[in-house]
């Protein structure tokens, strides 16, 4: 092959390298830049004559040197290509994202390929780094994941109260029972409902009743901790799982909630609605055979509160409560 032909071949090869819509960087084993194509010029804002010969860590201090060096050394040692995806590391070079379709992305998401380049002596003296802009695909996947997460939350949430719905809350209750069996850490269940709620609906209407339930859940969320798991169990009945909480502390929280509810004055149209709640509390113990029995004990304590005057909190006691039936 003539020297003229070789030069012509090199010329069109470099034309391809500079026009291709991926980033191509070549570095030597001292991490100095030997090739910097137009994709890199346009995305980085650094001209080729500025980048060429520069150490990559000086030019891009945001590149994690420890991670990058490990990656390059593995390529050289194994004489084999290596990869990294945006899911493992969002980007190698922090380029701004200018695509209008994915305008919400702050930076360009990148997939990276590292290729060992052998010299005529058979040694790997240079490494090619190929940068793929995968922002659109990454944003699409993130949007899908976010949509799926939102759908999952909606499937677990009671629409009126924004608390956990009964199905998901019972799953949490079962999981907490299993955790107690493993760890033995104190955990307590609170069940409560709104006293004479039927009278609220009959007197003020169902929309007013819905507002009472909304305000009850709002007060509940304001009273419990982030680690507590609250749910709407039935029409006007609620449950709260108090993780790592003995019954004495649960009683303090229950009374705080009861007094806050009692102090509420709900204004609905021209009406002022006041109401109260009754509460049952059951701490989990080793005698409880499953989560359903735990729930049943808390319910019995709740019904004891209702039978004995309502607007009070009762801690389950097998000797005191015995077999009570729902008094409504």
Describe this structure in words.
The structure is a single chain. This protein has 328 residues and is an alpha+beta fold. The protein folds into two domains: 3-142, Beta-Lactamase, CATH 3.30.450.20; 157-321, Reverse transcriptase/Diguanylate cyclase domain (Alpha-Beta Plaits). The chain has helices at residues 3-19, 38-44, 48-51, 56-59, 65-78, 135-156, 166-183, 197-204, 206-223, 247-263, 291-307, 318-321; strands at 23-28, 33-36, 82-84, 110-118, 124-133, 188-194, 229-232, 237-242, 266-268, 271-273, 277-283, 313-315. The strands form three sheets. The chain has a five-stranded antiparallel β-sheet with strand order 2-1-5-4-3. It has a five-stranded mixed β-sheet with strand order 7-8-6-11-12, sandwiched between helices. Strand 4 (110-118) and strand 5 (124-133) form a beta hairpin.
Helix proportion: 40-55%
Query: What are the low-pLDDT stretches, counting only 5+ consecutive residues below 50?
Result: 1-12
CATH superfamily of the largest domain: Reverse transcriptase/Diguanylate cyclase domain
- The chain-level mean pLDDT equals 87
Count of beta strands: 12
The overall number of domains is 2
Question: In what range is the share of β-strand residues?
Answer: 15-25%
Q: What does the main sheet amount to?
A: 5 strands, antiparallel
CATH topology of the largest domain: Alpha-Beta Plaits
Order of helices and strands: HEEHHHHEEEHHEHHEEHEEEHEH
Rounded to the nearest angstrom, the distance between the terminal CA atoms is 98 Å
Structural class: alpha+beta
Instruction: Count every helix, treating DSSP H or I runs of 4 or more residues as helices.
Output: 12
Q: Report the C-alpha radius of gyration, rounded.
A: 33 Å
Strand order of the largest sheet: 2-1-5-4-3
CATH architecture of the largest domain: 2-Layer Sandwich
Give the overall silhouette: elongated
